[in-house]
Every structure is written in structure tokens, then in C-alpha cells.
Known about the structure:
Layout: H1 18-44, E1 49-54, E2 59-62, H2 64-70, H3 74-77, H4 89-103, H5 111-119, E3 124-131, E4 137-148, E5 154-163, H6 165-171, H7 178-185, E6 191-196, E7 201-204, H8 206-212, H9 216-219, H10 231-245, H11 253-261, E8 266-273, E9 279-290, E10 296-305, H12 307-311, H13 319-327, E11 333-338, E12 343-346, H14 348-354, H15 358-361, H16 373-387, H17 395-403, E13 408-415, E14 421-432, E15 438-447, H18 449-477, E16 482-486, E17 492-495, H19 497-503, H20 507-510, H21 522-535, E18 537-546, E19 552-563, E20 569-578, H22 580-629, H23 638-668, E21 676-680, H24 681-698, E22 702-707, E23 713-717, H25 718-735, E24 741-750, H26 751-755, E25 775-782, H27 805-810, H28 817-827
Parallel strand pairs: 22-24
Antiparallel strand pairs: 1-2, 1-5, 3-4, 4-5, 6-7, 6-10, 8-9, 9-10, 11-12, 11-15, 13-14, 14-15, 16-17, 16-20, 18-19, 19-20, 21-23, 24-25
Amino acid sequence: MTAISKPTSSSPGAPADSDTKAVAEARHAETLLKTGALQSAIFNSANFSSIATDAKGVIQIFNVGAERMLGYTAAEVMNKITPADISDPQEVIARAKALTAELETPITPGFDALVFKASRGIEDIYELTYIRKDGSRFPAVVSVTALRDAEDTIIGYLLIGTDNTARKIAEEALLKAGALQNAIFNSANFSSIATDAKGVVQIFNVGAERMLGYTAAEVMNKITPADISDPQEVIARAKALSIELDTPITPGFDALVFKASRGIEDIYELTYIRKDGSRFPAVVSVTALRDAQDAIIGYLLIGTDNTARKEAEEALLQAGALQSAIFNSANFSSIATDAKGVIQIFNVGAERMLGYSAAEVMNKITPADISDPEEVVARAHALSAELGTTITPGFEALVFKASRGIEDIYELTYFRKDGSRFPAVVSVTALRDDQDTIIGYLLIGTDNTARKQIEEERQKLDQKLRDQHFYTRSLIESNIDAVMATDPRGIITDVNKQTELLTGCTRDELIGAPFKNYFTDPMRAEAGINRVLNEGKVSNYELTAKARDGQRTVVSYNASTLYDRDRRLQGVFTSARDVTELKRFEETLKVKNLELEDASRMKSEFLANMSHELRTPLNAIIGFSEVLRDGLIGELTAQQRGFMSDIFSSGNHLLSLINDILDLSKVEAGKMTLELEPVNLAGLFGNSLSIVREKAASRQIHVQLDIAPELETLQADSRKLKQIVYNLLSNAVKFSVAGGEVTVSVVPVTRDQMEDLSPRWKSRAFPLPSEEFTDFIRISVTDGGIGMAPEGLEQLFKPFSQIDSGLARKFEGTGLGLVMVKLLAELHGGTVAV
């Protein structure tokens, strides 16, 4: 397809008169008209297969020529397949490999291999085997053009193809074959111009007359081909060849045949000038004609009108060039026989593949003699059954279809001279004279070893993929969760058995249905899919699935986006775990926790109320017993004073117990607060020591206090801090042996040193933000008591518990002292450890 660019504005200083503008507009209009006409001609022509695709390769246009050549209707392929799907897969793979090596970039086999050059702005014309709807094949020459929008963005590709079958036959026969000579010289599709050694035209066939407008009589023995060629191109060719071959070449006929005169294959493009002065592009193949002594007696210039191909950007190689290329190519075995099958031509490719020289086989054997005899017999039997006629095993079996005008390409095993074998793909053509009588056969073969190996590798890969698919499927099916995959629109593309059980629907029913339809809240389900697409994944997203029978199941939905190997979004992969029982357990646990909280609150309220109720009469008992004991209302006997002292002591003990219970209930109820104030540490510790000093002295226990000199005041609740210190000192004195020692140490510490406390008791009422508390004081109380077993530490800070019942009887106590120490320390942002 011809690209039409917009006229550019004039450069500075360039003339911009109305004549110039009119000429530019006229040329632009002419170009548009030609383009439209060409497009219409190509797309409506049955001689060209015009296939247009979108940027991804999906076919959008499939013209009548494509329908005729390939056997599909446009409706059968449009928006369904790519051109790669109707191409020989082995050739597509081979092309991808070749382009990868040529362009040094990895190219994926498939449509990309067919359009890669065109997508990079590189002219691309190649040969390819197309596969028809009925499975038959034909060679095509394909020209690829990238279609671009106004911003030069590729929006698709145009692949214009021609059926190369006829050309293959023509191009694969040597010029000396009489049948091919007659076909070329009598064809109106080729301009065949033969000259003498000096270049004067001697033969001017009907094709040349039609293309150039001259009769043979007007040019023969009068002019050279250079006289009907663009003189500027002839001069340019002479210069280019002079540089290329490093020898001066005179512009004129010499420039057109110089390479051929040196035995160099020569095919080039040239502009011919018709009798009426009009021009057309031609592709010209030049061959030197030689006598028996190999002396040049003239030249043969075979040309094809390249106008249509140029405008369609196909630039097809014309017959003579490709013919020469094939017969001189080592990649094809070209074997021509006479009508009886005796080999007449055996090209270099056949020599290379089969190991024979041409002299060893020409006029001696038939192709059947170098073919696997069992395969030849099998082919004869198969054709006999297929065609309903008896076919003799031998050469006839190899050419029978071609002799009946039926296209014939088959696989066959060839035997080399050394006895080794190789698989070949053989194309057979009957060669006919101008009376349509068969005068021989042309068998063109390619070594199919590499393709066979690729097919075997592909089969192995296919099996590996099947195994991998089975393994992946097994993993999905063995999952205890309901597993689903959706496309980006939320349409289910795959499910496992658990999903069928969850929904009560079969896999076939689920695939293609919206994901949201199987949940009680479709909007929330759809929002879950969208969230995955936006964030990449989602975890523990709660949904309630509904089954066909109405059963509802609470599921925890986890999902992530799903990509292919090229990182293209394919959809969402989800798993849904049944958490119905878990939800029931959580609800039960929540109810139990609320019940426990209520019970704890009621207990604390009960204790607080009871403590208040008990403390009021107890204060009266303590007060009156103290008055009586001290004789303030009269003298008592010694026995009576002893009774009063016991009442007073027991009352105080009971009051202390009630106060501890009240404090504990306040802390547990969250009602105890701190009244922070500057506290003089020396005074506080001195006061606490004075309370226990008398008791310590009565048992000859020495109490030692060490306060770091830099510690003077502290922000704390004075009463509660005193309670902490008193409880620690009271316990130390209580459990120390007589004559022992109690040491109290008060030092400043940092946060890191705080963390060094025994990890067993490293707990706090709340986390300590590093920016809030950085400095602490450590109060250490050491006594000379009896110690405790490690297992006793577990009970140490539990309310109303003492480590040993014997100790409880020996030493008075409620079991609340250390509990209060811990709670009050944590209330101050600290901790307690043993």
C-alpha cells in the first residue's frame, strides 16, 4: 500500500508562487487518485490475496483473491485467526530463527515472525507456503507492509500474496528445456529479448511487444535493450558496477550485461521506456548465451512488468532469476527426468544432498532408484486405492498424480550414495511441450531432517506442556479451597472441584458466568475483583457464597492478578476458603469475652462495694480498741490489755487487707489514676524505712539504703510509690532470717538497661514510645531470706497466692502485696522483676 505524506511548507527562501502550489496540489491529487485506484484494484482482484490485520495480527480484511486461493470465506477468518494460522508452521519457526540470527534480536515464532521486518520499516518480501482450508498447500510470494495512522503508529499490517505455483514450475526448469523455452518465448507475461554478442536485438517476443508497444520488426537488428532503458539508470548502473567490480564499465548495453558476461548471476530492476514515451519498472534477468565452445554468442534478457508489484510493494523475483537461483542452489535437489523417468538433470543441490555427481546418475537411473523401495511400494498401493486404478510400484508411483495434472507434494526417504537415509519433501511437476504432451518431470526436494527434528521436539514439548498442565491441574484440584480464575472483566475462566461443591454448579455452568453472581452481595464481590486489578492482590476479603440450593457459606477470599509470560494481564486468580465454622467460633469467643468482662467488672464492683462496707465498721472497732488498750477511759487489767491489743492488731491487719483489695479492684476496673507530683526520694525512702525499722530491729535485721547522689526528685504519685517501696521492704524484712540484712539500692537507668531485666517478668501495662520515656530509676531490694524454687516464680504475681502453704501459716500475708507492686509499677510506665 502506498503511503501518502502531507505536503510540507516551503523552506526559507524557496519560491512560493501560485504555479508551484498548483503543481504540488495537482501531483498530490494525482497520487491520491492513483492510490485509491490501486487499493481498489488490489482488494477487488482475484489474482492477489490481500489480507489486512490489526496491530496484533488478527485478520480484519480477507479479499476475494484470498478467498479463492485459500478456500476460506472472509467470515471464517476475520476477527478469528492470524495469517500465521494459515501458514506452514515449520516455515514460520524457521523464519523466526533466521530473522533472530539476522537481526540479532529474539523473535517469537508466529505472526511476529511474518511482520517483524515491516514493523521496523524494512522492506519485506518472502516466500511462504500457505495451507488451504482443505489442507492442501501452495507456495506464495508475500509482501508485507505496516499500516500506520497519522501519528505514524502501527495500526495493522497488509500482506499481499501471489500464488507462486506456476512460477515455481517455470523457474525450476532450465532454459535449455524446450518446454520452458517455448513457454517463456510465447508468453505475453514475460518480455523475452535475445541479442547478439554486441547487444543488437535478435528476438523480441509477444510479451516484449505487449509491454513496450513496439513490434518485433521495429526493433530487431536495429537497437539494443539500452535504447529502451532509462539512460540515467543505465549510467548509474555503470558507475555502481565499476565501483563494485573495480573495473571501468561503459554506460550503455555493456552495463546491462557485464555481470552475465562474466558468469555472474544478474537480476536487477530497471525502468523501460515504451514506444509512446511512458515508463514502467521492470525486473530483468540476464543470461549469457554460449555456443558449444562456451563462447558468448548473445544475451537473453527476460523481464517482467513490475508496476503492480511495485505499487503493491511486492517486488517479486521474476522467473529467470528464481529459476537460476534454484538450479544453482545447494538447498534444493532439482532432478529433471525424461518422460520415462530417466534422470536428465541433477543439480548441485541434488549432488550435495545425495552424494552422487550428476555424471553418475544422468541417463542411467530414475528417482525411484534412490528412494526407499518399501515407501515406493506403499505409495503405489495407497494411490491405487485412492484413485481406483492400478499403479505399478516404481517411478510411476512417484509421478502418477503429476501426470494427471494433480498437484503433488509428498514425503519420501531418499538413499544417499553412502547408504545413509534422510527424509525429504518432494514436489513433482509434469513438463509439457506446446502440444501439452508430457516430455518429462521435475522433482524438487528439500531435506526434511531439520523439520522432522523440530516436529519431534515440538511433540516432546507438547507432551511436556500436557504433563505440566496435568500437574498444575492436579495442584488446583487437590486444593482444599475453592479456586477460580477470571478475566479482567470478572468473567469466570476456570474453576476447581471445590468451587463446584461451593456453588452447586458444574464447571461448564460456571465458566463464562460473572464471578459476582455466586455471592450474596454481588457489588462487594465485583469490588473485590476491581480491588485486585488496582492493587495487585487482596487478602482475607470476606464474602458470603450462595449455592444453587440456597446454602450460604462465609469465605475468606484471597486473590492476585494473573499475567502471561509476556506480562500481559490475563485476569484474576482467586481462592476462597470456607470460614463459616471459624466465624461461628469467633462469635462464640466474642460472647464469652463479653461475659468474662462483665463478670470481672461485677467482681471488681463487688469487691469495691464490700471493701467500703467493711471498712466503715472496722474503723470503729480499731478506734475503740485503741482507746480501750491505751486506758483512755479507764485502766484495764493486763489480760484485758492483751485482748485489746489483739483486737487492735487484727483490725489493722484486716483494714490493710481491705485496702489492698480495694486498690486491686480499682486498678482492674481502670479507675485508679496517678496524681503526679515532684517527690523527694530521700524523704520518701526514709519515711518507708522508719515504718519497717522497728520490726527489723526486733529481729536484729540491718536495713541499708543506698540512693544515687544525683537522684533528688522524681515525678510520681507519692502515695503509690510509697506503697511500692513499703510492700517490697515489708516482704524483705518479713522473710529475712534473724540477724540478716536488707539492702535497698536506688539508681538511675536508661531504657536499654530497663530492657536487661529478666525477660520472664519484662511486661508493662502499655508500650513505651521511645520519645515519651527515656530515663528511669531502678529500685532494687535484696534480702537474706530463704529464697524460692524456680517454679514458685510462676505464682509470685498472682492475686491471693503464696508460694508455700507452710509459709502462709508462718508469715502473715494476703498474697496481694507483690501484685499491687507490679500493677502500680506498670501504672508508672515501669515493670517489676525478680
